[in-house]
């Protein structure tokens, strides 16, 4: 038996997002979001599922927080729904929406749980989308005003703030690939939205400093690690482009104020021009306090100009196990991402803001959920986090995705990531075996391997 012990004060947490768990889509003055619209568009979401009720956490949060306390986690990462705060995105502030988050945060504090608040987890007010959404630079101004509203309301109660969750998903997945709301399929739109989101991030960081908010602010990009299939230069370059599309395109400008020139040229060659206005890069490079890293998967690939891929990249199946959503299980990729950040950008504090696995196990005859696949996935990835810490990476905490099964975006309710099983018909919660495994880890702060 080998024991790996985590640093004292290491934070063990769990995460959710507003649209995926809250429900109550038209209660207390909430406006419509792009995901309300997208999920009502035939063919966009599995079986026409939507977030109208989701996990009904809007009403059930007190008992859900009790379960967090029972699990022994020290922090809960959640997002605020912009349409609850400013229903049309740019007009009057909805005090009932703010009151909900005050109540949520107060309940967390009552149980000794630290809030980590994400300002934007994809639920843009539909009224702003009707005016161009993130393609319209005016949305930056509206976001900064929304952020200021939340900062001023919850200052003193929240110490950890993230501006955006997964800007790659906001931009390329939603505007180039088209799998997420609003479902556009133009590369130029993806590049434009990515830049506008990063400018909004930078302006929000500057505002945070100007307001003198006590606490820390960062951003939470999603990352992957694509390993070249061989040492051939063309394979190395193709893997760099594919990984860089997620990692470099967002991390480098935030950390250095500069976009990766190789990728700028590649996009230009594909007809997508990066449009930078005066002062943008200084804003984007505004100093942050931490990086949130979301990691689930990665792969191995090689150069293939006939692959049909934007980056002439072709994944080579390595026979790895996959989760139920079809993603490779590649724990070392998390170590590779973390050490790459240390190597390229120095000693920035890092929180693993999302890591988890989709396994669709339901209750067995004994009434329990035996999700052994998830336990094994988490064990392997947590071990790689420890390995990174031992290698000098400044990892301060780990948030499991997700606290509970929820609305999994375009997959609807067909994919389950939770430590807690949710019966969507009855809203019954059943803690899974992974919940009990994670509780032991959080309470002991060491892992047996």
- The proportion of strand residues reads 15-25%
Order of helices and strands: EEHHHEHHEHHEHHEEHHHHEEHEHEEEHE
Assembly classification: single chain
- Which fold name corresponds to the CATH topology? TIM Barrel
Distance between the termini: 6 Å
Give the overall form: globular
Structural class: alpha/beta
Text of the CATH class: Alpha Beta
What's the average pLDDT?
98
CATH superfamily: Glycosidases
Q: How many helical elements?
A: 16
Low-confidence stretches: none
Question: How does this model look, in words?
Answer:
By secondary structure, this protein is an alpha/beta fold. The protein has one domain (3-448): Glycosidases (TIM Barrel, Alpha-Beta Barrel), CATH 3.20.20. It has 16 helices and 14 strands. It has helices spanning 18-21, 34-39, 57-71, 82-85, 95-110, 126-129, 138-154, 167-175, 187-211, 233-246, 248-256, 261-269, 280-284, 331-345, 372-390, 433-444; strands at residues 3-5, 11-15, 75-79, 114-120, 160-165, 216-220, 222-228, 290-303, 313-315, 349-355, 395-401, 420-423, 428-431, 446-448. The strands form 3 sheets. Strands 2-3-4-5-6-8-10-11 form an 8-stranded parallel barrel, surrounded by 6 helices. It has a two-stranded antiparallel sheet with strand order 1-14. Strand 10, helix 15 and strand 11 form a beta-alpha-beta unit. Helix 3 (57-71) runs parallel beside helix 5 (95-110), helix 7 (138-154) packs parallel to helix 9 and helix 15 packs parallel to helix 16 (433-444). It is globular and about 55 Å long. The N and C termini lie close together (6 Å). One of its GO terms (biological process) is cellulose catabolic process. Belongs to the glycosyl hydrolase 1 family. One of its GO terms (cellular component) is cytosol. It catalyses: Hydrolysis of terminal, non-reducing beta-D-glucosyl residues with release of beta-D-glucose. Pfam families: Glyco_hydro_1.
């Amino acid at each position: 038996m080998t024991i790996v012990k985590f640093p004292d004060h290491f934070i063990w947490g769990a995460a959710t997002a507003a649209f995926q768990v809250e429900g109550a889509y038209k209660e207390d003055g909430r406006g419509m979001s792009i995901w309300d619209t997208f999920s009502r568009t035939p063919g966009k979401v599995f079986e026409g599922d939507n977030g109208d009720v989701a996990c009904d956490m809007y009403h059930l949060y007190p008992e859900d927080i009790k379960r967090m306390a029972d699990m022994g986690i020290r922090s809960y990462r959640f997002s605020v729904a912009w349409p609850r705060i400013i229903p049309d995105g740019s007009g009057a502030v909805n005090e009932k929406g703010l009151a909900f988050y005050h109540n949520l945060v107060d309940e967390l504090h009552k149980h000794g749980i630290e809030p980590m608040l994400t300002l934007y987890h994809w639920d843009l007010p539909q009224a702003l989308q009707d005016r161009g959404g993130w393609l319209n630079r005016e949305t930056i101004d509206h976001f900064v005003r929304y952020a200021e509203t939340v900062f001023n309301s919850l200052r003193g109660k929240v110490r950890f703030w993230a501006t955006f969750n997964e800007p790659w998903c906001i931009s390329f997945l939603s505007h180039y690939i088209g799998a997420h709301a609003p479902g556009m399929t133009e590369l130029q739109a993806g590049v434009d939205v990515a830049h506008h989101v990063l400018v909004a991030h930078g302006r929000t960081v500057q505002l945070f400093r100007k307001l003198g908010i006590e606490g820390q602010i960062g951003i939470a990009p999603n990352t992957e690690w694509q390993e070249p299939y061989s040492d051939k230069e063309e394979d190395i370059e193709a893997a760099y482009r594919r990984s860089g599309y997620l990692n470099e395109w967002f991390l480098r400008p935030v950390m250095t104020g500069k976009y990766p020139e190789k990728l700028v040229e590649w996009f230009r060659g594909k007809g997508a021009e990066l449009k930078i206005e005066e002062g943008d890069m200084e804003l984007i490079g505004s100093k942050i306090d931490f990086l949130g890293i979301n990691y689930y998967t990665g792969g191995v690939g090689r150069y293939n100009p006939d692959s049909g891929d934007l980056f002439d990249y072709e994944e080579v199946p390595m026979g790895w196990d996959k989760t139920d959503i079809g993603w490779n299980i590649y724990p070392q990729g998390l170590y590779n991402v973390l050490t790459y950040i240390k190597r390229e950008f120095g000693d920035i504090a890092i929180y693993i803001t999302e890591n988890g696995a989709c396994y669709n196990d339901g209750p067995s005859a004994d009434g329990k959920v035996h999700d052994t696949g998830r336990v094994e996935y988490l064990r392997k990835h947590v071990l790689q986090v420890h390995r990174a810490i031992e290698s000098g990476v400044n990892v301060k905490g780990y948030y499991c995705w997700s606290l509970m099964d929820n609305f999994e975006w375009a997959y609807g309710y067909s994919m389950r990531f939770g430590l807690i099983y949710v019966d969507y018909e009855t809203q019954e919660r059943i803690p899974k075996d992974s919940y009990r495994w994670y509780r032991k880890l959080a309470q002991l702060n060491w892992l047996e391997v």
